[in-house]
Amino acid sequence: MGKVVTLGEIMLRFSTQTGHRLTQSEQLQAHYGGAEANVGISLANFGHEVVFASKVPDNGLGEAVRKHLQRYRVNTDFLLTGGNRLGTYYLETGIGERAAAVIYDRTGSSFAEMDTLEWDLSELFHEVDLFHLSGITPALSPKWQTLTLDLVKQARKAGCKISFDVNYRGKLWSQAQAGHFLKQILSYVDYCSAGILDAVHLLGITATPTADENSTAFYYQCMKQVFPTIEVFYSTKRIVHSASANDLTGTLWIAGQYYESELHELDPIIDRVGGGDAFSGGVLHGLLEKMEPQAIIDFATAAAALKHTVHGDCNQFTQAEVEQFLAAGSGKINR
Amino acid sequence: MGKVVTLGEIMLRFSTQTGHRLTQSEQLQAHYGGAEANVGISLANFGHEVVFASKVPDNGLGEAVRKHLQRYRVNTDFLLTGGNRLGTYYLETGIGERAAAVIYDRTGSSFAEMDTLEWDLSELFHEVDLFHLSGITPALSPKWQTLTLDLVKQARKAGCKISFDVNYRGKLWSQAQAGHFLKQILSYVDYCSAGILDAVHLLGITATPTADENSTAFYYQCMKQVFPTIEVFYSTKRIVHSASANDLTGTLWIAGQYYESELHELDPIIDRVGGGDAFSGGVLHGLLEKMEPQAIIDFATAAAALKHTVHGDCNQFTQAEVEQFLAAGSGKINR
Amino acid sequence: MGKVVTLGEIMLRFSTQTGHRLTQSEQLQAHYGGAEANVGISLANFGHEVVFASKVPDNGLGEAVRKHLQRYRVNTDFLLTGGNRLGTYYLETGIGERAAAVIYDRTGSSFAEMDTLEWDLSELFHEVDLFHLSGITPALSPKWQTLTLDLVKQARKAGCKISFDVNYRGKLWSQAQAGHFLKQILSYVDYCSAGILDAVHLLGITATPTADENSTAFYYQCMKQVFPTIEVFYSTKRIVHSASANDLTGTLWIAGQYYESELHELDPIIDRVGGGDAFSGGVLHGLLEKMEPQAIIDFATAAAALKHTVHGDCNQFTQAEVEQFLAAGSGKINR
Amino acid sequence: MGKVVTLGEIMLRFSTQTGHRLTQSEQLQAHYGGAEANVGISLANFGHEVVFASKVPDNGLGEAVRKHLQRYRVNTDFLLTGGNRLGTYYLETGIGERAAAVIYDRTGSSFAEMDTLEWDLSELFHEVDLFHLSGITPALSPKWQTLTLDLVKQARKAGCKISFDVNYRGKLWSQAQAGHFLKQILSYVDYCSAGILDAVHLLGITATPTADENSTAFYYQCMKQVFPTIEVFYSTKRIVHSASANDLTGTLWIAGQYYESELHELDPIIDRVGGGDAFSGGVLHGLLEKMEPQAIIDFATAAAALKHTVHGDCNQFTQAEVEQFLAAGSGKINR
Amino acid sequence: MGKVVTLGEIMLRFSTQTGHRLTQSEQLQAHYGGAEANVGISLANFGHEVVFASKVPDNGLGEAVRKHLQRYRVNTDFLLTGGNRLGTYYLETGIGERAAAVIYDRTGSSFAEMDTLEWDLSELFHEVDLFHLSGITPALSPKWQTLTLDLVKQARKAGCKISFDVNYRGKLWSQAQAGHFLKQILSYVDYCSAGILDAVHLLGITATPTADENSTAFYYQCMKQVFPTIEVFYSTKRIVHSASANDLTGTLWIAGQYYESELHELDPIIDRVGGGDAFSGGVLHGLLEKMEPQAIIDFATAAAALKHTVHGDCNQFTQAEVEQFLAAGSGKINR
Amino acid sequence: MGKVVTLGEIMLRFSTQTGHRLTQSEQLQAHYGGAEANVGISLANFGHEVVFASKVPDNGLGEAVRKHLQRYRVNTDFLLTGGNRLGTYYLETGIGERAAAVIYDRTGSSFAEMDTLEWDLSELFHEVDLFHLSGITPALSPKWQTLTLDLVKQARKAGCKISFDVNYRGKLWSQAQAGHFLKQILSYVDYCSAGILDAVHLLGITATPTADENSTAFYYQCMKQVFPTIEVFYSTKRIVHSASANDLTGTLWIAGQYYESELHELDPIIDRVGGGDAFSGGVLHGLLEKMEPQAIIDFATAAAALKHTVHGDCNQFTQAEVEQFLAAGSGKINR
User: Which residue windows are transmembrane per the record (chains A, B, C, D, E, F) (predicted)?
Assistant: First the structure.
């Protein structure tokens, strides 16, 4: 098993109960999560030694974040305390034809307001195999774009593999801003989660696949040509029948070859938030464990499918449980 | 935006939680609603000035009704207090193959027991664009049949458009009784919600469409011939796959033309009660706003579809939210 | 209506709420049930006089079991108290692709530890039409295999029809052990619930149907040849699309003829536990009432389908409600 | 143990959760109860054979009543079905200084509307030791006053002891009406629950105790002189500090002697409804078991005190549990 | 009845359930409230025409605020939408010896960030009898100190009585800052809620009462001398036995006379938040209705006591209910 | 801060909700806890490095235990997996006069069934300052008595201080058995939690204090004479007014001096389970930190008092929070 650092913002999510609008909700479900924290928890569940680095306020909410992470045996020695607030957001849970709706209230959070790298980086990256971060962090502020680049360079220097999830959020920055930044950072990246839309709208890939090419494979190939350091591309393809029923397929590009998982019919979906992070966690686990590519993408997609069956941002299944799920097929009681 | 009066009974609904029978329920959900109140709330949500006229007992339940309506900015100046009780009913929520089951306990309610029109009608209908009521009210008692006709005549005299939803309830009166009454009232009606079954079983339309005619359009046309004052017919077609999954299409007949919405796949259904009222609210909004017929039926059916995704009798979506839903398609998170 | 005795273990089931893993659950739903108790409750709901014989500890949990049975008018005069504990198990509820998971904690229960038949059997079987038990009981211990045979012989001697549900549980005994025992007991049985897998893996039927034979009918026929006392075979065929969606068909073999119900699409499933017992209850009701075979299998499968729509182990529908469900088709509100 | 019949109305109570007003409650707790049913359940819990006679509608609510009673092993063979509705009431739960508030909605219930005694009385009273009823029943209608007298006379003729709880409800009839009726019925009564207020305001006792007399004992003595058939008087004295804290003392007059229990400090009170019925159940148990008077009043008051610690109308404690509570004193964990 | 404007910030409060720490809470109760909104709702409940002026974001939380106010018939025509966020805070509910704990997250709210008076003040104050605001508003920013003074001057010019609740919050500004501001504003105030601590620590009253003077009356008198425009002073005295049990007494100074209510024993307390606002609402109602001073302080303190018995920030009792509570004394069921 | 090992059984507790009996509970609260685990969590919350050693089954319940401990940063490297089951017990929560009731179902647990010390003791006790265990462990089996003595001897040899909480459980062993064992182990103990009843009934102290001696101090002195290695005695005195209201005082004997805390009025009590463990945690923290004796007992009793205000077995307050509570007094909101 490997040693991993993930770094990013972690927030408090308030969700409505299914079938209730936010305006009528007298109680809200509280979950803590963030893309990088979620990946970290997945990897800890799969047996890796994981450090999550972030910053939270020095109050009960910051303490709740810490306890949430510790519960899954994620190391919180680099979870700084200070600053003004924990970022929050409100999720009006979708159902059937009605999509979920999000209200962000994350401005001014302890993490977003950081303007220096307050961690001891030599300690943070000491003997670390993999450093994972996402495009949400540089989207928080111009300052964080600089800091993110610094982090990646330092991690690389310390010998870590760099894993980066593009994770574009249109509410935080424009496609032009994101594209500009991505072109800088992707030269330092080893494993990259990005999809067709990212290739076209952020990275400016203008070539198009022929009718009989696999589109995803095509764009992975194009991105590889622009960013030759990247060894692995991966992302999911999701067909959204409704907020309650999606089809999910995982895709992976490694060493010039393209792999796809079987399609998972997610119906009904309990909680979609964190599904992509569970997938990333699965892929990174496979890479750390040097699994076969097909096994990696099968495992990762199964992990993502399982995430959709539980409330909360983080995947709660061990390596053994994911493998048993893959082996068993769908829906039978074992008794 | 227009000024609207809706008038009818409003009741307390007790619903079981999904998967529980009434006999085993230790707690019940309490919702307030009635066909005309629900239409009123929809129209208020869409920005119209709405008065709901009714009568409730002078106790905490009557007060709860008042607060429920006020919450949506429905004017309650014509919500009288007095009489003996608030009508109630029990809904054992359906699921999958098992249909919902209803126990009515509405006899003797403050509204049903009214035997004069206790409102100042000249004040009630002052500068009102639209008066909406339904066939549930005359079904309550012979007295209410007389009063309903009086109301409609007075409203018409005051210059209101008359909107009438047939809303046949077999537990309240026979088809013969309903048919007899409908034939009287429909001569005063401008906008009428009625379906094929109403045409055949209540209004005695015996003609039948040819194989290549649209049945709904055919019956609208037949009813138009009998009741020439009616300018608009509308209703929904519902295919019931199960209590949890229905397909819904809206139909509209206006100025000799027939319009249909796209089909909405409602799956899963959170709460079906009030779905038809949300549809009526949408149609009436479109008529008040003089929208194009196709836009009206699309809007109204979208509103009805959204209603099925929330608990409670009333639609809780603004005009902007319905339009955004129409534009966005199904089930994606916006973040 | 008949007089029936069912006998077996009854346990406390702890279930998670949908979408929660056991490890994260701060509250668990408590249901009492067992295959034979569930069948007993179904038969009591259908109007039969039912005695449930078992043994529970002399504490609040034993008392809860008693009250649970009494609620459905099941006679508890033969529910002994004593011994050490009530058996329990934990059900992590499945959803979509993720199957339910069970942790048994039933060792050492008051019932399992019995080593003599502590009931007065002449009183227990006095004027009883039907004695029902299942293969779970002999699986509890070698002692219980002996006791089960004794019970069946005595019941038969007292003039009861013997109903036996194979109900193989791989966590309790091996296929070889079960097969050995079954071969002894099935010579005393009149009505037997067993499926293809039981025939092949437990009873060692090695013949195989031809391509155009109905497999289920074929194996019923084979078992009939081995165990000629058995008059009736029945079981369900279940296609598991996911933990939330199954297709269910009932099958019945009686007097040399094979019958099948229509297929029920169970979607969504609220609680699958006890679905088979509801089916058995329906079949036994039909046999006691001497209904036509096709009516029996239709009724029983409808009862099983309804069970899947309610929480808890036991079916909660009366004969009239099952019949109305059969007549009404799927999912419409009656109002 | 004895055989007991209790007879009266049973209703559905909707209670708010503590700290919520009725107007703001989105869910309500559902409990079934009535004075005579509650006494019956207490006596069944104490080991007696109890029949509860009443009438409920033939729907899910009537069935819920039946199951509620059966749960406690109360015989429901004389629970008739028919009529229009189950009476209901709404209880806004009190807390601290704020008293509970009640809205009755019981008019027109299946029981209240009865106008003949639909039970086979010779069967109902066959070998019955004790017939218990209350002043709520004759308060329902003039017809029920006649029927109540008939019942008591027939029961007496059949050899039952008659137990009557005055239970005056000012919302159902006036003091004058009640007094007039009581003077008729009390000549047929053996055991009577009545307090000082009943003596003064309903029975017109004008004598007053001297300063050093026990008031309760004084009025019992006065009532005995007017109604010489009554062997036993009993009632509770309650000091209401707040809705959450009461002091309770039981009083008993038997064979010319007056007895009092120790004072119970009820703090906090979970649910006060049914406290008096639990007390009556305790007294009647003591009388049936021919316990010593002091033991009777201690037992009955302990039973009443325990009732205040559980939700719902009915006492849920066995004879052994009440006795253990009496022996143990207050509030220690046994482990 | 009068016409009243209240103006201030309204926030979303997240409360834990009793007995749960914030760090362990998986769901939080959501209540909307603010000192001035709460006073407004109380006055609306007492029958006055109330406008609440504030600013909330244009999202579902802002809409929830609007619906919350409308429910109580508070006019929201001056509830502006815009800005970045709704202020929130977290309340870890206290119990027994453990006090409640608060985490504020209100910086940057739509209201706090206002830097001009965006309302049409001539319209806002048109024919208004009373304008109520509190010391929380100027504490939000230096800008708001200026705006607050402007508001008060304009309101006074428009002929409104000015009501000001000092409501000092040490987490928002220092005593010196508050004192400096108060000395400016109190010259424009007619009715002032302030207590001994305010007089001593904010207004710099250095005189001290003699041993036989009533301290509260003494300080009211001192403040009157400094701010001669103030006609009425009022505040509560609270003895905190624990978070669950307080004693509350209301005090009032008017026309040179001092009045006190009886002491209310609040035990247990359901929710203390908004207790002071309910008191202010009661006093202002009494002043608007020109009640006798003793009646005013009795009514206001009763209203405050009742507030402590319900969840949420706002008092939910009508004038009639408060009066009935005053008349009835403590804790008896009315049935 | 110190390094601490605690060792013992950890169980799953099922609690009823307040005001519900076990027999009527449809859901139960699940908490994990055990005396030694609870002490460990307290010490971890106070900043110490804590290892909890135990054994749990290799299933979801064992995993839930692990996550529960990790959440509080308790090291679970010595939490073995294996064996048959997790011990459970049922707590019917007490209220007012009604005491809590417990049903144990702990026989055959993975921990209780251990018959060798499966941990590497040299690793377990490496550089550990304090080893804490309780009298519950040796009460589980004769085998465990031997193992407990072995553990203590080895720990002592490794240089740990030994802390032992007598924690007598009459349902597990007799006073004679306990006394016999205690006399062996107490010669190896440094810090001992034992009270008067332990001294008299288990250790056979027959001397009695004079009227003007402090009884607790007297018995501590007596025990010191018998077990001279013990440096510190401590326990709480609890006056049980009711299940909802207790008075609690902490007592401490150290270096020949006796200390008492102030009395804490615990009213209402949310959850009493673990109160004693929170106290032990506080004392051991004080000893590890070499606080002054009076400060130790004040801190420990405050910690115990706080525990009674939260659900669950374990104290959830940091050192800073306990100190702030001590400083602040009772029940005021800080805002």
Answer: none
